Amino acid sequence: MAAERKRVIISACLLGVNCNYKGSASADYLQGPFFSGRLAEKFELIPVCPEQLGGMSTPRIPSELTAKAGEVISGSGKLVSREGADVTACFLKGGAEVLRMARLLRADFAVLKSRSPSCGKKNVYDGTFSGVLVEGPGITAQMLMDAGFMVCDELEFLELFDGTDLGV
Ligand code: SF4
User: Fold this and answer.
1) Range of the domain at 15
2) Can you give the pLDDT at residue 36?
3) What total number of domains does the chain contain?
4) Best residue among 113, 115, 142, 143 to mutate for probing ligand 1, ranked by most atoms within 8 Å of CB
């Protein structure tokens, strides 16, 4: 019997879905393994865009965290758009929806796009809209990790599964 494919929550923009704030996909990966159908042969993919799931439009004005994701989730921090709007509720809703799907579909782990205020795992922009990164995850990544899901970014994923013939 064939081995069961791992069930993977994945940032939709990594798969070429045009869902980021510019209304495009993750350009770095358009020609890579994420954009080829080969990933779907190896894994059962569950594409999500937490910002869309949170009710934000596409394209949209970019947003950044002004506090650590954990502080935002506990109610003591917020996210703002580049025009100064408080968009915290959308990000929390999007993260909650992704977490709901991860639980419902019993995801094995998540692969999330780096540096996003939703999906970033290691770094996010610092809230000044000047391109400065600070350590820490985005809202959705934090929620998934808090719930016990393994989260990796796209580079960690390629390292972890190097040798599984992803066509890199
Ligand atoms: S919220 Fe996540 S899935 Fe959606 S565009 Fe941003 S990085 Fe990609």
Assistant:
1) 6-61+91-120+138-160
2) 73
3) 1
4) 113
For residue 26, the ligand 1 atom closest to its alpha carbon is: 8
Mean pLDDT for back-to-back runs of 10 residues, the chain (168 residues): 84 94 83 75 94 98 98 98 98 98 98 97 98 98 98 90 56
The CATH number assigned to the domain holding 148 equals 3.40.50
Q: Residues 6 or more apart from 9 whose CB is under 8 A from it? A: 46, 48, 98, 101, 102, 107, 109, 110, 111, 112, 144, 149
Residues touching ligand 1 (Cβ under 6 Å) are: 11-13, 19-20, 49-51, 113, 116, 118-119
> Under a CB-based contact definition with an 8 Å cutoff, are residues 146 and 26 in contact?
no
